[in-house]
Amino acid sequence: MHVRTLLAGGAALLAATTLSGGAVMAADGADDSAQVQALTIQGPYARAAALIGPGADVQLYKQVELAHRVAPGTYCVEVHPDILLERAAIAVTPTDDGSGVPVIARVAAPATVLADNPCPTPEHSIAVTITEPDGTPRDSGFYVAIP
Questions:
Q1: What range does the record give for the signal peptide (predicted)?
Q2: How far is the C-alpha of 136 from the C-alpha of 96, rounded, in Å?
Q3: CB neighbours (10 Å) of residue 45?
Q4: How many CA atoms are closer than 13 Å to the CA of 16, on its beta-carbon side?
Q5: Omega into 110 within 30° of 0, i.e. cis?
Q6: Is the pTM of this model over 0.85?
């Protein structure tokens, strides 16, 4: 699978290496959001980090409040209010779903920079868009990290 990642803030960071340890989440599924209910992961070099599933289920996390799937391939990840996103270097890396279809992840944070803001709390949200190379939205899991 070919994966390309675009970063906000210009810092190169592979989010997958930031996420170590483990916790499992239960997604509510009804509104495509997942409340964070498990123990935090060990991520000593990350202020916030998470593994988000294709349905916005938070599978691993540190300082992430919840995630929403707002449209096909579009997600909002809400971080703890103590995390300032204005100057954060945010990394997002799509997970491999085994389909062999390449995907591209784009991030905009804080979500207030978006003209059409999909996130309910933009000052504490990271907006993530996952697409195929031709721009077709695609649901995919992803890692997100804020060092």
A1: 1-26
A2: 17
A3: 11
A4: 8
A5: yes
A6: no
The Cα–Cα gap between 62 and 22 comes to: 10
Q: Token pair for residue 54? A: 């294709």
- For residue 136, count CB atoms less than 10 angstroms from its CB and return exposed for 0-12, middle for 13-18, buried for 19 or more: exposed
Q: Which range is least confidently modeled, 4-8, 38-42, 43-47? A: 4-8
What is the pLDDT averaged over residues 33-49? 66
5, two tokens: 């990642």
Position 84, amino acid: L
> The dihedral of CA 28, 29, 33, 36: what is its sign?
positive
68 contacts 75 by C-beta, under 8 angstroms: yes
For residue range 71-110, list pLDDT tens digits in order.
Answer: 999 999 999 999 988 888 889 999 987 888 888 888 765 5
Round to whole Å and give the CA distance between 133 and 102. Answer: 7
pLDDT level of residue 130 (50, 70, 90 thresholds): very high
Give the span between the Cα atoms of 112 and 80, in whole angstroms: 16
The residue type of 6 is L
Phi, psi of 124 (to 5 degrees): -125, 20
